[in-house]
Amino acid sequence: MAIEINGTAIPATPRPGQCLRTFLREQGNLGVKKGCDGGDCGACTVHVDGTPVHSCIYPAVRAEGKAVTTIEGLAQGGALHPVQEQFLAEQGFQCGFCTAGMMMTAATFDDEQKANLPRSLKGNLCRCTGYRSIADAVCGTRDKHNHDGGTAGDAVRAASATGSAAAGSTAASSAASTTAPRAGQLGDNVPAPAGLGVVTGNARYTLDVPAEELQGLLHLKLLRSPHAHARIVSIDRTAALQVPGVVAVFTHEDAPAQHFSTAQHELYTDDPDDTRVLDHVVRFIGQRVAAVVAESVGAAEAGARALHVEYEVLDTVFSPQDAMLPGAPALHGDKDAVKARISRPRQNVVAELHSELGSVADGFAAAEFIHEHTYRTQRVQHVALETHSAIAWLDEADRLVVRTSSQVPFLVRRTLGRVFDLPEDRIRVVAGRVGGGFGGKQEVLTEDLVALATLSLRRPVQVEFTRTEQFTATTTRHPFTIKLKAGASTDGLLTALQLDVVTNTGAYGNHAPGVMFHGCGESLAVYKCANKKVDAHAVYTNTVPAGAFRGYGLSQMIFAIESAIDELAVGIGMDPLEFRRRNMVREGDDMLSTNPEPEEDVHYGSYGLDQCISLVRDALDRGKQRYRDAGLDDLGPDWVTGEGSALSMIDTVPPRGHFAHTRVSLLPDGTFAADVGTAEFGNGTTTVHAQLAATALSTTAGKVAVRQSDTDLVEHDTGAFGSAGTVVAGKATLLAATSLASRIITVAAALTGVPETECVLDDGGVACAGRRILLADIHDAARHQGVQLAVEGNWDGTPRSVAFNVHGFRVAVNTGTGELRILQSVQAADAGVVVNPRQCRGQIEGGIAQALGAALYEEVRVDDAGRVTTDILRQYHIPSFADVPRSEVYFASTNDQVGPLGAKSMSESPFNPVAPALANAIRNATGVRFAELPFGRDKIYLGLKKGGPVHSR
User: Fold this and answer.
1) pTM of the shown model
2) Is the pLDDT of residue 774 over 70?
3) Strand residues in 639-770 grouped as ranges (E)
4) Which of 14, 112, 559, 682 could form a disulfide with 60 if both were Cys (CB 3.0 to 4.6 A apart)?
């Protein structure tokens, strides 16, 4: 019997054992996504006879004789389904990879199911949004408890109507703005340009390439190491090559000898050259051993299983502290320290930092209260729902083309050229829409494999990691161990900060130096203290590599420092927020961490930290009063309540150069095109570029078509990391658009004979002293005159500003069971002039949700043999709808003098203060300091029973 797909009977027959997801994609339904292949995430949800099912675990044969509806068939008669309209209206997505599955589930809800979304959406996960916008979309009602406004002043005005904020808030009301944003320009809630494609399933992610465009496509699968440390003695390919469909097997003997780092930065010398495409030594369980290329995924997997490998097992070390001891096995002891840029390879030290400002001995002697404790943070996985994947082929000019799920396509091109000894003009790298990143796709983890195979076989080759491979063989957040000692005087001043930091970079040093240095940067610089000392080491171990993760080392360090700040405040009997006010940097203060002089190019482009603290304090006070007024403040004798907060600062651009090149053009129909290099993976940069260009060109974002993430489009772009999409690439776009506006006016003035000073660009034309020339006519005139109405913009990422975030929680803890309830969550952000308030709010909410997961339960666990044991989603708990509280979000009212049109970055930073704020709230409620992440219910219960360690005097 045929399977009916979206109203059409399909004659194709599923293969034995085939799941419905892969069958549907083979029939061209590319809106059906893979996030787990285990029935855990819901990205693959479709309807079978009207019932939503996870197609990744639904046997395709069971759909024979049934009607299957995918996201492509949800709309009827050319009209969107109501749930698609609602997701579009409420922008219930960011990267959008989960959105099709989310809508397919929600489209079947009745009123009762809508009233219980925590239960109804338990089978659908989103990593980006924090779920608030999804709830608004599913129910078709805007959340009335939080504002979408862009400034603290807007928060006050919104609160007058909604009761969500106090209209008398000093910090907010003094900064109120009275100018409404122009539609489609700066400050407007412009919808994402890809929104319609996302809700209809037509947005094209990495592997969403129709089969007819990749004739002869091969599939690559990897054999991975079962040992944490071993030398490969031999690999017998005979049996693998006899598997039907297997085309080739690649081993270290076929791979380039060039060492490189999978980490991608503007300066590749920022990271150690310690990696090969395929190596003869494996250093963690899950490392690549061989690549098998075949006509199908199944054949490639069978080929990998058929390989016979002889290993010489070597000694292992799993703790960074043990790895630095004399006699420990040296993972990269054969490498030259200078050539590979490894600090001390024979001692497993990738990078180290030693600094003292002032004298901490004198500072502790002057202290009247000292807090001393060790803080630990765990491995966390990014869990972007689109796994790492790439396709390579040779184009008609015999160039290598790689389509990849990457945040850094231009840097990928450079790395491939370096590894394979190819000039960059022989390589093109394209990123489609990327299904989430969070730093995990600032690496080369798939592109080198498909390049190796395609250059050898001269056929298209595709690789797609499984969810298990994501957990066991990509990267994680760096675990930190931080021994901290801090002193304060009774008048509320910090006298000394001393930190001994050890980071576990795993088997390879990708991002190890940068994460260590950055972590020890703004986390310390935000506080004035004459005496600061840091000793830090990034260390190799035989475990899964760490890498870039949202916050890039800051979240780990801020957890320790902000916890200690609270302990000092408690120790001297001062309100913790007041203690922070007395010690935090103010505009004009030097921002010092490990260098005696401040960074030359880091400035206070604007300063809103004081506003953020006031906004959070006022919000917590209002929340407490609301609970009292509602009679909800007494939860029973076993419950205790408390409040806690934490602050963070982050440089708006990474150091040592971050470059962007853009091109903005007037098109023949009078609209505009913006070509940019930066990638879109839910960070909202596409919308921001359109709005910045539209503002400069006096038009609307809908009339600016943004093309991006293709190395053929523009000269160079360092990439979408370090929150640089707005403040670097956006700045380049603004410069190009501003220059184009001037050029258009020059042409219009020449056409009309009117002075340029009397010509005004408007939406669709130029008004010249009473005469209006349409942009389409200006384009024609310029073409006949040989004038190019396309302008390029460049920005080099300097000078840089600083952004601030403050988070506050009010919690209740059951002292008998360890149960934690978040009664209130609030974050205030200094994002400068907010380009798109709704979008920026979504970034903050998503950052909060991800940070809550990292604070409460997320952990990549590694056993005593070095094996990752949390290798599927049901073993690794990311926040579901039911786990995430609604957060109040407020923006300080500032106008940054460095960022484009006053904007700052706001993608990474919302994550950073959440864990310490929660720990401080639990400490305030229970008197117990939890100093190791995550602190789930079991740890809270045990900590309460023990009384919890707080080492202070």
Assistant:
1) 0.95
2) yes
3) 639-651, 660-666, 672-676, 704-708, 759-762, 765-768
4) 14
